[in-house]
Specification:
Distance between the termini: 17 Å
Oligomer: single chain
CATH architecture of the largest domain: Alpha-Beta Complex
Shape: globular
Radius of gyration: 20 Å
Strand content: 15-25%
Number of strands: 14
CATH class of the largest domain: Alpha Beta
Structural class: alpha/beta
Length: about 325
């Protein structure tokens, strides 16, 4: 089979090559999946660059965490089932999804919701898994007000949908001036908007009558946003961090932090096993099946394996499109 292979950590294209390797051997308790679509996430690109500094990874390695495809070998009752998946150490400590086939433990099998195409299902994994984990970590519940930085991004918008699923009120914080913000009520998942390029303190004070919000899910993080995100919180508020844009070293007013009895939580989906990820993904799938979540449909750009290396470079450069790798070819969406 053909697969994208991580052959060294470093700049593109030296770190990645498309190679022909054997189809993985299915073991007892596993299924063989024909990969129709596979998402390329920023973490995939950073992994290839060596940003995660994972010790013990044996190269070459097939990268990729997210996928959607069809089971072609395994228990009779699962044959030809359409599945999707993410999580665990796939693409890090074991071969991942950026190949024509992959093996999967039975415990990691998640049936693809019929509402999602293969491309849409491949775009769900890491963004929704991270968002769900962040919302659960903060124990978001009915009646709370949650502010999400980067609310137009893949993780941010997934978090907005999940927060509304939990019956919370959502404030979307996005780049731009107040004059460019969407009209309140124009988005079914985001109740109010905040412009990050204007006086955020004054805006939030007006929105919350000076109280602040119960939870901030900060998808930007780092030196670029951490202190600002912390300042948005009401007494006993919770800040969830998933990223470190602009630098991992941050500072904040510790006196203000403890006087307001704030909470700080970090979320890293890489710490979840494949089985744990599958359990969460089944909950996420039920949200799509119930119509609570909207299928990812905007800005999906499919590429074949021959375009994979360039696609990694585009993702690392901050592409606004969600790039979907098609290991079987651009026209192959069939069982």
């Amino acid at each position: 089979m053909r697969a994208l292979r991580l052959v060294a950590f470093g700049d593109f294209p030296q770190s990645l090559k498309v190679q022909t390797i054997p189809v993985p051997q299915q073991k007892a308790g596993e299924v063989l999946v024909k990969v129709i679509s596979a998402g390329i996430n920023p973490s995939d690109a950073k992994n290839a660059l060596g940003s995660f500094k994972h010790e013990g990874i044996v190269l070459p390695r097939t990268p990729g965490r997210d996928f959607a495809g069809v089971i072609v070998a395994g228990p009779q009752d699962l044959l030809h089932k359409e599945v999707f998946g993410t999580g665990g150490r796939r693409g890090w400590d074991e071969d991942g999804s950026h190949a024509e086939f992959l093996t999967l433990p039975l415990s990691d099998v998640v049936i693809k919701p019929p509402q999602l195409s293969f491309d849409q299902a491949a775009a769900v994994g890491v963004p929704y898994l991270t968002a769900w984990s962040a919302v659960e970590a903060a124990n978001v519940r009915d009646g709370q007000r949650v502010l999400i930085t980067g609310a137009r991004g893949s993780v941010g918008y997934a978090a907005a949908q999940i927060c509304k699923y939990k019956k919370a009120s959502v404030v979307g914080a996005v780049r731009g001036k107040q004059a460019t913000l969407p009209t309140p009520g124009s988005d079914k998942y985001i109740d109010e908007w905040l412009a990050l390029e204007d006086d955020t303190t004054a805006q939030l004070s007006a929105l919350t009558q000076g109280r602040g919000v119960d939870v901030v899910i900060d998808t930007v993080g780092g030196a670029a946003m951490f202190e600002t995100a912390l300042s948005f919180l009401a007494k006993r508020g919770i800040l969830v961090e998933i990223s470190a844009t602009g630098g991992a070293k941050v500072s904040f007013d510790l006196q203000q932090f403890y006087r307001k009895e704030l909470r700080l939580i970090g979320v890293n989906s890489l710490n979840q096993t494949g089985t744990e990820s599958a359990q969460l993904l089944r909950k996420i799938a039920s949200g799509f099946e119930a119509g609570a979540f909207v299928p990812p449909s905007e800005k999906l750009r499919p590429v074949d394996l021959d375009g994979a290396v360039a696609a990694y470079g585009a993702v690392n450069a901050g592409s606004k499109e969600k790039i979907i790798l098609k290991p079987q070819g651009l026209e192959n969406n069939k069982v």
